[in-house]
Every structure is written in structure tokens, then in C-alpha cells.
Amino acid sequence: MTQSTATEANSDRCDDVQHSFEPPNKQQRQSNYQEICNEFFRKVRSYLKDKPTRFHLIDEDFAIDNTVVDSKLEDLKKKIVEVASEQSYWGEEMPARWILLEQELMKRIAEGVKVISCEDVENINKEGKIPIDKSEELDLFLRFLHETGTIIYFSTERLRESIVLDPTWLIDALKSLINAQPSLPEKPAGIEYQSTNLAEGDVEGAVTQSWSDFKEKGILTLELVDAVWTKEKYPH
Fold first, then answer.
1. Confidence of residue 117 (pLDDT cuts 50, 70, 90)
2. Any idea which fold 96-165 has?
3. Could you tell me the CA-to-CA distances from 122 to 69, 101, 111, 148 in Å, in that order?
4. So where are the chain's domains?
5. pTM for this model (two decimals)
């Protein structure tokens, strides 16, 4: 084989290799992306088919790419408005005193307040220009904000004393438990673990066991919650 022939043969092989490993074009990438999205939503719907939350599903799926300006985001916004307008409370008139109190609560959120007591809300209401004068209506107001996702409030006797003004903050706090890695932070001064049946010297061992129970059995103990939230600086 001459040098020229060998060079041509090598060139042909290089062309074959380049052709074999040619990256997918835009149409192919879009097709793969859509297949992945379809499979993801299929699994979600399959998982929820026997659960009460299935009633919250709509007939459309929206896969949003948050790394770019995705045109589907506008479609999602329109769908949210469409679904929201079908809710029973849509279009109902809201008392002006409700709006004023909601604005006061929004000020607290802007100031960084995450959780507020029911007593504090009552005091804020009393100091307002047009206060809600009945406790039943105040409870209805708080339940309305809960239903619309503005706050987290449960009117049961055991839970009503703590009102979460920033639902995202609570979600992040719960997420910190799910994503936490096994470690025991140094116990800061003034922090008491919420355990009624452990001596202080046994706390570290209890937390270590709690990690094992949480990862293997899904059992979440107060000792573990205290350890994680103390490390993540979530007040509790």
C-alpha cells in the first residue's frame, strides 16, 4: 500500500468514526427530551392513581426548563389562572377588613417573620384601622389564607397557636430533613433537645440511632429533628 493510499484509508476511517459519534441534532435532542418528560409524568400519574391527591391532577403536563427562557412557562401561567378561576371561592367578594389585615401580615413577612402566634395575629387585628370584631370571622379569615396557600394555619386546638407566614420556609425546613446527611452538630449553648426520656449524656447515641431508623425505616424522631434543625439554624 502506498503512502497516499494509506492516508486516504485513514481519512476514510476518521470520517467513519466522526459519523458514528456525531452528536444528536436539535430535533433528536428534542425527541429524547420529550420522551424523558413523558416517562416522568407517566410515573407520577401512575403513583398517584390510587391516592386522594389524584383529584388535584389536571389533564395537561408542563415540563419547564428553568435553565432557559422557556415559552411553556406562559402556557403554565395561563393554565394556573384557568384552573384557579374554577375554584369555588373565585369571584367572591372579600371584606375590606380582611384585605387590611392580610396587608399587615405581608409586612411581617417582608420583615423576615416566618412564624407568628395566633395571639400576635389577634393583637395586630385589634390595632388595625378596621379590625375583625368576631373570633369566628378571624378564624375564617386565617383558614381562607390557608386554602389559598398564602399561609399555613390549622384551626384545631393543638395546632392553631402557630401560624406559618412563609410556607416556602416550612418546605425548606422539611426538605432539610429529607436531604440531611448523618452527622451530629455540636450542641449550642441554650439549646435543649426535645427528649423527655433521655439523659443528656445519651443524646448523641440517640441521634445516631435516629439516623439509622430514619434512613432504613423512615422513622423520624424528635432527637433527629432537633439535631438537623439546630445545624440548619431553623428555629424550633
1. very high
2. Arc Repressor Mutant, subunit A (1.10.10)
3. 43, 10, 19, 20
4. 19-84, 96-165, 179-232
5. 0.52
